[in-house]
């Protein structure tokens, strides 16, 4: 069975993607900071017939990242790494003039540095896999200048560049930076609590990720809404 590591998997898109992959026969190593919620998510994912190991922890911790990869190796290897864990830097979001620098550092550590750290930890086994794949979660804020989204957008722009360079340096892998588009998630609610406009559920976005895994296009940056429209 193929094996995936998914960070930020206790809820939202991470959990929805985990359930979809479990239904397709993937074994999964799941990460999140909240142990109780992660355990509940892992139980639901395992109900789809997958082997699941849930490891609560902080992706900015090198020891935790090593444990995630070790757990995947226990299942047979690492075929897919999905870095879905994200930090906003401030909740709610704020203008750069008021953005705490510690918040910016946290966003960069979680969204960018931890992503590279996890990929580096998993890289020997990704290279051995016939379908070694890295998916990083991007954002339109990485490419557009939206007021109050500067810190978060900067961390995602840096992540996009890391993904692009990784694809050049590791041509045997597929490396996709995916902008999932607007979703109804706790992260968005924390970012902009006054915005109660309807948004797609994370499960509605998952088919875009499954399409990438099925069709395996070239490494690059993709938009989930565009992938869904082209189906």
TrEMBL record:
Top-level class of the enzyme under EC nomenclature: oxidoreductase
Family, as annotated: Belongs to the short-chain dehydrogenases/reductases (SDR) family.
GO function term, MF aspect, one: oxidoreductase activity
InterPro entries cross-referenced by the UniProt entry: NAD(P)-bd_dom_sf (IPR036291), Sc_DH/Rdtase_CS (IPR020904), SDR_fam (IPR002347)
Record's keyword annotation contains Oxidoreductase: yes
Keywords for the protein's UniProt record, in alphabetical order: Oxidoreductase
Name listed for the protein in its UniProt record: SDR family NAD(P)-dependent oxidoreductase
EC annotation from Swiss-Prot or TrEMBL: 1.-.-.-
Transmembrane residue ranges: none
Superkingdom in the source lineage: Bacteria
